[in-house]
Amino acid sequence: MTTRTAGPADASVAGTLALTALTPIVWGSTYAVTTEFLPPDRPLFTALMRALPAGLALLALTRVLPRGRWIGRAAVLGILNIGAFFPLLFLAAYRLPGGVAGVLGAVAPVFALVIATVALSEKPGGRRLLAGVVGVVGVALVVLRANAQLDTVGVLAGLAGAASMAAGTVLTKKWGRPDDVGPLAMTGWQLTAGGVFIAPLALLVEGAPPALDAEAVGGYLYLGVVGTAVAYWLWFRGIARVPATSVAFLGLLSPVSAAMIGWVALGQALTALQVLGMVIALGGTLLGQAVGAPKVAVRPVEPPVSAESGSGAALTAGIAANRP
């Protein structure tokens, strides 16, 4: 019997996962920024402001547009990861207590396991299925309250949003990106497509844009550059390099991050049960990672694209105890 030792491939995968994990950690700050700095009751406008300006800026920066079949693929990915995900998530958040919406969002890794089994032939195994259950339990302890009430439309929206994000994650892995296109341009395509999808919804549901003060402008800049641009670039970069299901499980870190930021920055109390939930959610995240170096196709070196030397672009929803 031989003992397997960690090699360069393992270190590379671990480093990619650690860097990608910064995304849900940053997403956890969305709730605090939204409640403290942004106009109230304008979730779709907030989603639009985070997606479309960043997407258009990246298109101008990279000067790369989708061609051929990638026009349709970019639209599908943009709608799944951003355009449909955000409205569904916001609908769930408005009709359900934040804790319930957070638990529904934590089901996304389970959806990703199922979709990846069909689309990518990734066998989930009992270990990852257990990790999915453990993750949901951990998040429930962190965000769920005893007085939580259920609403059928809200529950369906929350589950549909989790499934949309899971499908987008898996398809991003399955389709990859064109050989001559960097991850920054790919992120810009999805942000723009998602923003274009959200724009008419925001105008129809919320009406004209609100007036913005200096705090709101600063909040949108943070969410657009850090919580959207950099975060989604890291997320899509991670999906390209490691199994999609491994990346999906990192999303469990978002409600943990939100609870910690609420405790440190907003003075919100943390109970012993919430701390236990954090430990369990972290355990589910680790349990959901692949054992050893995964056999996935990885581009050895991304072709240098001078126009893509800036920061990345990304989008997530501004809701407590939820992912992006």
Q: Which helices and strands, and how do they pair?
A:
Blueprint: H1 8-20, H2 22-27, H3 30-37, H4 43-62, H5 69-83, H6 85-95, H7 98-105, H8 108-119, H9 125-143, H10 152-175, H11 183-206, H12 214-241, H13 244-250, H14 253-265, H15 272-287
Helix pairs in contact: 1-12, 3-12, 4-11, 4-12, 5-10, 5-11, 6-7, 6-10, 7-9, 7-10, 8-10, 8-13, 9-15, 10-13
Keywords:
about 325 residues, mainly alpha, about 0% strand, globular, disordered C terminus
User: Structural class, from helix and strand content?
Assistant: mainly alpha
Mean pLDDT figure: 81
Strand content range:
under 5%
Order of helices and strands: HHHHHHHHHHHHHHH
Give the C-alpha Rg.
Answer: 19 Å
Q: For the report, how would you describe the main beta sheet?
A: none
N-C termini distance: 44 Å
- Overall geometry comes to globular
What is the strand tally? 0
Q: Which residues form runs of ≥5 with pLDDT under 50? A: 1-5, 292-324
List the total number of helices: 15
Helix content: 55-70%
Descriptive report:
- By secondary structure, the protein is mainly α.
- The N terminus and C terminus are likely disordered.
- Helices cover 69% and strands 0% of the residues.
- The longest helix has 28 residues.
- The N and C termini lie far apart (44 Å).
In short:
With 324 residues, the protein is mainly alpha-helical. The protein has helices at residues 8-20, 22-27, 30-37, 43-62, 69-83, 85-95, 98-105, 108-119, 125-143, 152-175, 183-206, 214-241, 244-250, 253-265, 272-287.
